[in-house]
Amino acid sequence: MRRLYVAGNWKMNLNLAEAKALVEGLKKGLAAEAQIDVAVCPPFYMLVALAELLKGTRIGLGAQNCHFEAKGAFTGEISPPMLKDAGCDTVIIGHSERRQYFGEAGELLKKKVVAALGAGLKVIYCIGETLTEREAGRTEAVISRHLREVCGPDVSLDHVTIAYEPVWAIGTGKTATPAQAQEAHACCRSEIAKIYNAAVAAAVPIQYGGSVKPDIARELMSQPDVDGALVGGASLKAANFLGIIEGALAARK
Ligand code: 13P
Predict the structure, then answer these.
(1) Does the active-site annotation cover 133?
(2) Please, which pLDDT band fits residue 253 given cuts at 50, 70 and 90?
């Protein structure tokens, strides 16, 4: 059975003192034996300090973006080896906010994924349709396009988690229903089976993201193809994030 994986995408929020307090709260609240993978993805400048706090714990550390080159004249960017050096084990790539506000797509995202995996990072690759695309009946086509932008015989999914994040559910308080999430996740999995094969599709974890809250976590993660969550707003408070983790664990009991 695929492991559960809940990650917190803090986006551009918190200051260092708040971040440290949040991490301490998570360390205290997360049972050592819980059968779940957990990670936090803070803003870049906090990574080194938080890596120190997370040493020896089972909470992973992710960045929210990276460049595809290892080094060079790319002002304002950060490379996958630098993220490793900072203590990260994971990086989010292709988040809809990167696609929407920074024009990231296709070829560029593939280069980022390849570079991150090459540097020994795990990747959370985000995909998902906008409201207009959903209303036009294009959800499956968008899922397929986003997956095919990155997936192929030259990219192994061994260290990749897919995060299905419908854009209309992000930060809106409008969570996809468990049935909507399941339908989209099943679509992701069948698309991955077409690109690779059934075994790869069965193994790849698929997180749901978009207004995940503790009260809906259990039902969402009870869906057969929902293997966890990528949490935005609710990951900024220890009690909420831990509540989502509890919901995820309850879904697998
Ligand atoms: P919210 O949970 O705030 O809707 O954000 C989801 C998200 O974008 C996680 O990457």
Answers:
(1) no
(2) confident
Ligand 1 atom having least distance to the Cα of 163? 10
- Distance CA(216)–CA(251), nearest Å, equals 11
Burial annotation 65-91 (CB, 10 A radius, 16+ → b, else e): bbbbeeeeeeeeebbbbbbbebbbbbb
Task: Return the domain boundaries, the chain.
Answer: 4-251
Identify whether 67 is a catalytic site residue: no
**So what's the pLDDT on residue 32?**
84
CATH 3.20.20.70 given to domain 4-251: yes
The whole-angstrom separation of Cα 161 and Cα 153 is 17
Q: What residues line ligand 1, using a CB cutoff of 6 Å?
A: 9, 95, 165, 170-171, 209-212, 230-234
Cα of 208 to ligand 1 centre, how many Å? 9
Residue for token pair 């959800």? 139
pTM > 0.90: yes
Residue whose structure tokens are 């695929």: 2
Span from the CA of 73 to the centroid of ligand 1 (angstroms): 32
CA 146 → CA 27, 78, 101, 104, 194, distances in Å?
34, 23, 17, 11, 14
Q: What are phi and psi of 223, to 5 degrees?
A: -70, 140
70 Cα: distance to centroid of ligand 1 (angstroms): 28
Ligand 1 atom index nearest CA of 169 = 4
Q: Which residues contact 4 (CB under 8 A, 6 or more apart)?
A: 35, 36, 37, 221, 227, 228, 248, 249, 251, 252
Q: Distance of CA 32 to CAs 29, 210, 224, 242, Å?
A: 9, 27, 25, 13
**What's the average model confidence in pLDDT over 144-151?**
98
